[in-house]
Amino acid sequence: MQWTLVIPLKPLSRAKSRLSDTADDGVRPGLALAFAQDTVTAALACPAVEGVAVVTDDALAGRELAALGARIVPDEPGGGLNAALAHAASVVRSLHPESPLAALNADLPALRPLELARVLDAAAEFPRAFLADAAGTGTTLLAAAGSEELRPAFGPDSRARHRMSGAEELRLTHVDSVRQDVDTGDDLRTALTLGVGQHTATVSAGLLGLP
Fold first, then answer.
1. In a structure prediction context, what are the per-residue pLDDT tens digits for the chain, which is 211 residues long?
2. Within 10 Å of residue 60's Cβ, how many Cβ atoms?
3. Largest Cα–Cα distance of the chain, in whole Å?
4. Contact call for residues 61 and 14 (beta carbons, < 8 A)
5. How many domains is the chain partitioned into structurally?
6. Distance CA 113, CA 125 (A)
7. N or C: which end of the chain has fewer CB within 10 A?
8. CATH number assigned to the domain comprising residue 177
9. Is 209 domain-assigned?
10. What is the pTM of this model?
């Protein structure tokens, strides 16, 4: 099964505010872009992925991610994360009605293509399925096979909300790179330990206290 991934990215100037203890205002936009670049690069290298659509209104991010091979979908609703994902999913489905879809976080700089393939292969067994984040309360991937609606419920406690929506939780091991999103300095240190992509490695190299 070949999947289309939908990746949401807020304007870089407003991204990753929780990293303020690790990176200042001048560095965080570059970090957010680097995370997204490494996420898209790994996703497009995944054998189970046919294409990636990034929903964003950030002009710089749009140019950089399009250059990697992503399709850019404007955030026309302007109604937040879940509205953006639903809009992008509808755009993809208007072109490919039966395409299996998965929403993927944009802040997975350690993402491994083969681990992502394992998650998507497992998700193909269910109408809707999700993978919890490393912290255990959020979600890094939500999948909808066939013509099933995505029905995203990202945000605080999204693990519980996706479970309540009827999506199957994927209880996989050895897919740490797909679970490890980056919101805090500690998250970034963990991602660096797993091994991040070249964009994140370059931008984070000068941050105090990080390897």
1. 899 999 999 999 888 777 766 776 678 899 999 999 999 999 999 999 999 999 999 999 999 999 999 999 999 877 899 999 999 999 999 988 888 999 999 999 999 999 999 999 999 999 999 999 999 999 999 999 988 999 999 999 999 999 999 999 999 999 999 999 999 889 999 999 999 999 999 998 877 455 5
2. 14
3. 48
4. no
5. 1
6. 19
7. C
8. 3.90.550.10
9. no
10. 0.95
